[in-house]
Design brief:
The complex is a heterodimer. Chain A is an alpha+beta fold. Chain A is about 25% helix and about 15% strand. The longest helix of chain A is centred in the middle third of the chain and has 12 residues, at about 60-70. Chain A is elongated and about 65 Å long. Helix content of chain B is about 70%, strand content about 0%. Classes of the chains: A alpha+beta, B mainly alpha.
């Protein structure tokens, strides 16, 4: 049954109530923009750093929007955008077993080695 | 691993000041509370563009117009950083925006007040952004990674906001009698609502205890409010304005300013939707969303055409 009366609330209402939610839904599918992750190199010589995400219709729009959102104060010389679905990540819950081989190899650290004081520049 | 073990690992991280990141396990209530808080913070930024956007066409000089445009643009950017952080918690942008438009989500009640004169723009920069800065600096140490990082970025941009507001009032306070009166009038109207920005007293704040335990909130409402009063009372002297509180007085024993009680009836009234501009603000947001639909559709279609053209060229 279609609901012709949309009730709008203007203040603090409890979690379980919801106002005129229906209107946004129908048009959503046509204009759905995918999510992109944004990486910015702030200065020549530095790496690209992840700064956040945004929605855009395609890569060119994503780059232009990233410029407007993340570099208003000249904080970038280079922008990378990647659709979020193409980012693959390690599983934090498996971190313990995933990184375990490195945890007991203390000989990878320079401080493990005791050299006499006379040895210079090492 | 059992829920109990996962909870223990989570609380351990909180205790050791290790940030929680999007894919880490977290209690469902932690996730829900953050979605609520971060999205409402985002809505506040975007709705906050409206009272100031109101004066862009009427700024007294070209310089002031350019500055106000830049500030409002910043607020849009801040909203976007925060919507982006909300999305990392597993809720879609569409759902978040929808909650604002349907009236389900709140935003900071300060933006339900009207901007009646140019001096209001100065008062907002000085008082409202000043209050926001105190809150946001505190939140730079919040336990959820994306929220904390968004706060750091926002804080860098926010200090120009407060300075431009103070500078507007400074110029007015050194001007004609009419200008001085306009300055005082704006301060009279924005002072108490700014104090209300810090929320109810700690004793009445329902979410505070849990938020403090999980280090989402690092300082209490009353602590931040006291800090604000101490800071602003000193700055007011330079502007030669009086803050509209007869009980405002330096207390050498406490080493803080004493101040009067907030009109809590007004506070709850505005939060519940009966402020001067609640309806206006939401109507404006809904209108903007509806009238922007053709842009969203056009961009999507344009992107498809561009992609089709490129595949044709390659083929």
């Amino acid at each position: 049954m279609k609901n012709f009366i949309l009730k709008y609330y203007y203040g603090d209402i409890p979690e379980d109530k919801s106002g005129g939610a229906a209107d946004a839904r129908q048009t959503a599918t046509q204009s759905d923009w995918p999510l992109w992750e944004v990486f910015i190199r702030s200065k020549q010589g530095l790496d690209h750093k992840h700064v956040g995400s945004l929605h855009a219709a395609d890569a060119q729009m994503a780059i232009e929007n990233a410029r407007d959102v993340y570099t208003r104060r000249m904080e970038g010389v280079s922008i990378w955008v990647v659709e979020s679905k193409y980012i693959h990540a390690s599983n934090p819950e498996e971190a313990e077993s995933f990184y375990e081989p490195a945890s007991d190899k203390v000989y990878r650290h320079p401080t493990f080695y005791n050299l006499p004081d006379e040895v210079k520049h090492m | 691993m059992s829920i109990k073990d996962l909870e223990k690992i989570f609380l351990d991280k909180i205790e050791k000041e290790i940030k929680i990141e999007p894919k880490d396990w977290m209690p469902e209530q932690y996730r829900k509370t953050l979605i609520r808080q971060i999205s409402q913070h985002a809505h506040s930024e975007v709705v906050g563009m409206l009272p100031e956007g109101n004066w862009i066409t009427r700024a007294p000089t070209l310089k002031r117009k350019a500055i106000l445009l830049a500030k409002v643009q910043d607020e849009a950017g801040h909203g976007l950083y925060l919507y982006s952080a909300t999305e990392t918690l597993g809720v879609s942008r569409e759902q978040t925006i929808n909650d604002l438009h349907s009236g389900k989500a709140k935003y900071s009640s300060i933006f339900n007040y009207p901007t009646l004169t140019w001096a209001d723009i100065g008062a907002i920069g000085w008082l409202v952004d000043g209050a926001a800065i105190l809150n946001q600096v505190m939140l730079c140490r919040t336990s959820y990674g994306p929220y904390a990082r968004a706060m750091v970025r926002i804080c860098k941009e926010e200090s120009f906001h407060q300075r431009q507001g103070f500078e507007i009032l400074l110029t007015l306070s050194r001007g004609t009698d009419v200008q001085k009166a306009m300055c005082q009038d704006a301060v009279n109207r924005w002072w108490w609502p700014s104090l209300m920005m810090f929320g109810p007293h700690d004793s009445e704040s329902t979410h505070s205890e849990q938020s403090t335990q999980w280090k989402i909130k690092r300082m209490s409402n009353d602590e931040l409010r006291q800090k604000f009063v101490d800071m602003i009372a000193e700055q007011a002297k330079i502007l030669n304005v009086t803050l509209p509180d007869p009980e405002l007085k330096w207390n050498p024993e406490r080493n803080h300013y004493d101040f009067g009680e907030i009109n809590w009836e007004e506070f709850w009234n505005v939060v519940k939707g009966n402020g001067p501009c609640n309806k206006q603000r939401l109507d404006a947001r809904r209108k903007a969303w509806q009238e922007g639909e053709w842009v969203r559709q056009a961009a999507a279609v344009h992107a498809e055409k561009r992609k089709a053209r490129e595949t044709q060229q390659v083929a």
